[in-house]
Amino acid sequence: MTETIDLPVETAAEPQNAAPRRKLFIKSYGCQMNAYDAQKMTDLLAPAGFDETQTLDDADLVILNTCHIRERAAEKIFSELGKVREVKDARRAGGLATQVVVAGCVAQAGGGEIVRRQKAVDLVVGPQNYHRLPELLRRAEAMPVIDTEFPVEDKFDFLVTPPRRVTQARGVAAFVTVQEGCDKFCTFCVVPYTRGAEVSRPVEKIVAEVADLAAAGVREITLLGQNVNAYHGEGPDGRVWSLAKLCARLAEVPGIARLRYTTSHPNDMDGDLIAAHRDLPALMPYLHLPVQSGADAILSRMNRKHDRAAYRDIVRRLRDACPDIALSSDFIVGFPGESDADFAATLDLVQEVTFASAFSFKYSPRPGTPGAEMDEQVPEAVKVARLAALQELLDAQRLAFNRSLVGRTLAVLFEKKGRHVGQIAGRSPYLQPVQVEAPEALIGRILPVEITGLASNSLFGRLMPEETQRL
Ligand code: 5AD
Ligand code: SF4
C-alpha cells in the first residue's frame, strides 16, 4: 500500500526540447548495502529511459539514497535537499522539470514528514520498495507519493540485470546483497525498524547474480547483509543453507577468486563459518566483527546477547582456524550508563584483541529505539574525549598492522589505474589499497606483490617476478 498525501504540487514546465532519454543523479549515503541499492535503482531506471549523470544541475531525476543510522547522517539529507531545491527552482525557471526522490532509510523512518519539511520532494520510497520506482515516478508527477509499507512481493524478483558493459565499467570487485533486515534489536539501532525483519535470498538467485557478475569479469564478491552471517536461505535441495555453505558454492563459480561478507554479529559466527575460514581459500582472511563495547554491563544494556568473554572466545577460534586472519570492528562510546570503568574495559578489550582497522562512533540517540529512552545519557564532552582516546588506540593498531606487512608478499587483486602514471591500484586480502608500478593490462588479475612501504591509508608494493606468479 502506498500513501498519497495531499499537498500542493509544485508544477514544473515540460522540457522544451524533449530529449528521448533523461538524466539521473543518484547519491548514496551510509552502508555498502545502500551503495548496492543505488546501483540496482540505476539499473532499474535504465530501461525506463534514464542515464546516470554526475552533475546535479543536469539531472531530470535526483535520488538521495539516505542513511538513518546516526543523527548526523540523517540531518545531512535535509541540507542536501536544500541544495537540490535550489537546482530544481533554477531548472524550472529555465523550463526544465526535475523530480526529487528521497530513498533509503531516512525515507523509511521519515515518510510523509520529509515532504512536509521539504516541499521540493516528489517521492519518498523505502528500501524495500524501490523496485516500484518507474511506476511511482509516474504517479509522483501529479502529486507527492510516499511508499514505505513493507511489500508482500520480493523486490529482488523485480530487479534488472544490467548490460555486461555496465557491470564491466563498475570494476572487478562487486557487492551482492544476500540477506536483509535484522531481528536482533540492539537497543541503539534503527536497522530493525528501517530494514525490517531478517530475510535471506534463495541460494540459486544469488548464484545466478554472481555468475552474471563473474561472466562480466568480476573476481571478488562481497556478500552483504545487515546480519549477513545469520544467512539462512533456501538451497537448491530445498533445505536451509548457512552462509558457510553459500560461500562454498559461490567459490565454485568460474572466475570468482575472492569472497568477503559483511556485517556479522558475533552470535552468528557458527562452527561451520569459522571452519570455512580454514578450508575455503577464496574466503579472505579479513573479518568485520562489530563488538561495540568491551564492558559486560554495556553489552547487556545494548541487548547484544553476548558478553566480552564470548567475543574473545570467537576471536580465539577464528585465529586458531586461520592464523592469518585480521579483524575489524565497530565501537560505540558513550552509550547510556557507560562509566569510566566500562570505557576502560573497551580500551582493554581492544588492547587484548588487536584490530587491523575499525570504525568508532559517539552514541547517537535515535528516535524510537530503547537506548534513546534510557537513563544516564552520557554528556557530549565525555563522548568526545572517549572517542578521541579510542581512536588513538585503534589508529596505532592499524598502523602497526600495516607496518607488519612491509616485507611480506601479499596477493593483490588489481582493480584500476593507480594514482600516478604507470601505476595500478589493487586491494590486499585485508582490503588495503596497494599501489604498484605495473601495466594496466594486469587489471583483473590477482598477483603476488611484495609490500615495500606505507602511506597513511595505502600500501606500496613491487610486483614479484614471473616465476613466483602462481596465485
Ligand atoms: N549511535 C552511534 N553509532 C551507531 N551505530 C549504530 N547505531 C548507532 C547509534 N545509534 C554504529 C554501530 C554499528 C555501525 C554500523 O554503526 O557501531 O555497528
Ligand atoms: Fe544506514 Fe543502516 Fe540504513 Fe545502511 S541499513 S543505510 S547503515 S541506517
Structure description:
This protein is an alpha/beta fold and 471 residues long. It has three domains: 16-147, Rossmann fold, CATH 3.40.50.12160; 155-404, pyruvate-formate lyase- activating enzyme (Alpha-Beta Horseshoe); 409-469, Nucleic acid-binding proteins (OB fold (Dihydrolipoamide Acetyltransferase, E2P)), CATH 2.40.50.140. The chain contains 14 helices and 22 strands. The protein has a seven-stranded mixed sheet, with helices on both faces. A five-stranded mixed barrel has the order 18-19-20-22-21. Helix 13 runs parallel beside helix 14. The protein is globular. The model is unreliable at 1-19 (pLDDT under 50). It binds 5'-deoxyadenosine and iron/sulfur cluster. Iron/sulfur cluster binds next to helix 1, helix 3 and helix 7.
Write the layout of secondary structure elements.
Elements: E1 3-4, E2 22-28, H1 32-45, E3 50-52, E4 61-66, H2 71-93, E5 99-103, H3 104-110, H4 112-117, E6 123-125, H5 133-140, E7 145-147, H6 164-169, E8 173-177, E9 179-180, H7 191-194, E10 199-200, H8 203-215, E11 220-224, E12 233-234, E13 240-241, H9 243-250, E14 258-262, H10 271-279, E15 286-288, H11 296-301, H12 308-321, E16 326-333, H13 340-353, E17 357-362, H14 380-405, E18 409-417, E19 423-427, E20 433-437, E21 446-454, E22 459-463
Parallel strand pairs: 2-3, 2-4, 4-5, 5-6, 6-7, 8-11, 11-14, 15-16, 16-17, 20-22
Antiparallel strand pairs: 1-7, 9-10, 12-13, 18-19, 18-21, 19-20, 21-22
Bound molecules: 5'-deoxyadenosine and iron/sulfur cluster (SF4).
